[in-house]
Design goal:
Layout (H helix, E strand, L loop, with lengths): L22 H22 L7 H26 L7 H16 L6 H24 L5 H19 L9 H8 L1 E2 L2 E2 H19 L1 H11 L1 H6 L5 H26 L6 H5 L1 H11 L11 H20 L6 H18 L14 H17 L7 H5 L1 H14 L4
Antiparallel strand pairs: 1-2
């Protein structure tokens, strides 16, 4: 008896995977580089970048944009956008100032009213996106225009009055750190905990990564998106409350003049969050906000033309996105290839099986008397028995 032997198949050599840097780490490195460059530039004009006053200015500049960017991060993680945030900021400042009316006893009522109105706006945005299936860009743009029309119709200038007790939030601090920045960082910690430790936070990543897969996995895809829009409007309302405490009045244009819609999106993208959703972090966004604050501070200290700020911001955003897209991304081979890849795979599989399993050889005894035995068998079968 002869035994068939097959040569062992050799697996193709794998390419060594390059280690991919985390987006938050890249943002931290970029922030450190911006601080070093800024310190050198500020020192060239005879100023101290690390003075207490300058650090306070930078942290103060982070507060308002940080609030808005935190909420925008939640929405972008779900593969949506919110362009109504500047109008929510303006509306919140007006409601707060009008409700307080210079009376410290009205502060709690004003804060609760502002947050409730903002949550209702966010709920409307979320329902329009999820139930009416309107794109988030268009839905929030329409909501923002509705709020803008209301503000332009009912307000011709500043309105209301904020009591001094509430103005202390925007004017005081602990050492060089403003209280508003501490509140913003507390909100960032809460948002990071929400994304990392709650079911809804995990579902936001899933919905933003692939909504169809999330739905087939049993996730109710509408709920995370609605929650994200509600929280985004609430954080925009916090920014409006902070601006009201700084200005002492409410303003119908304070949100649009700050450009918090596009700036918040830029800070989120600069922080490493994908605009397509599914990947990002709160702390990366805070790093993006800090980079913008440092760049604005350096240009203000050096008395650069204010119109050049947008040019520098654009360069920073493009450079950041270029760095992210050039990173080595670990790609997993698809489990179920389609198209040409599937046909090539099936052809390779059939060829491999044919090579690995050759037809069996006949036994020696059957080889010696093969033909007569076969003939006798045929004759027996054809006649139904021996002749």
């Amino acid at each position: 008896m002869s035994t068939a032997t097959t040569a062992p198949a050799t697996a193709p050599a794998r390419r060594p995977r390059r280690r991919r840097l985390d987006a938050s780490l890249i943002v931290g490195i970029a922030l450190l580089a911006v601080i070093v460059i800024g310190a050198v530039l500020v020192a060239s004009v005879g100023r101290n970048f690390f003075s207490a006053g300058n650090i306070r200015d930078i942290l103060t500049g982070m507060s308002v944009l940080g609030f808005v960017a935190i909420g925008q991060t939640l929405v972008i993680l779900c593969a949506s956008l919110d362009l109504s945030v500047p109008y929510v900021v303006s509306l919140s400042s007006l409601i707060a100032a009008d409700t307080m009316a210079g009376n410290p006893a009205n502060i709690p009522i004003a804060v609760v009213t502002v947050l409730a109105v903002a949550a209702a706006i966010g709920l409307a945005n979320g329902l329009i996106v999820t139930k009416l299936r309107v794109n988030g860009f268009i839905a929030t743009l329409g909501t923002g225009l509705i709020i803008k029309g209301y503000l332009d119709t009912n307000y011709q200038g500043t309105s209301g009055s904020v009591p001094p007790a509430f103005q202390y939030i925007g004017a005081t601090g602990v050492g060089p750190v403003p209280i508003s920045t501490l509140i913003m960082l507390a909100v960032a910690v809460a948002a990071a905990f929400f994304l990392a430790r709650t079911r809804t936070g995990s579902h936001m990543f899933a919905v933003g990564g692939n909504e169809q897969v999330a739905r087939l996995s049993g996730i109710r895809t509408a709920r995370p998106l609605i929650v994200a829009h509600v929280l985004c409007s609430v954080t925009a309302a916090l920014a409006g409350l902070l601006l009201a405490s700084r200005l002492g009045v409410g303003s119908p244009t304070v949100g649009t003049q700050g450009g918090y819609d596009l700036l918040s999106i830029a800070a989120v993208v600069l922080g490493g969050t994908l605009l397509m959703g599914g990947r990002g972090s709160i702390w990366g966004t805070i790093g993006g906000v800090a980079i913008f604050a440092v760049v604005d501070n350096v240009m203000s200290v050096m008395q650069v033309n204010p119109f050049l700020k947008d040019v520098v911001r654009g360069i920073v955003i493009v450079a950041a996105v270029a760095v992210y897209t050039s990173r080595s991304v670990d790609r997993r081979r698809p489990r179920f290839p389609t198209g040409a890849a599937a046909s090539r795979g099936s052809a390779t599989a059939s060829t491999g099986s044919a090579t690995a399993a050759p037809p069996p050889e006949p036994v020696e005894g059957a080889r010696a008397a093969g033909s007569p035995t076969a003939s006798t068998g045929s004759a027996t079968d054809s006649t139904g028995g021996p002749a």
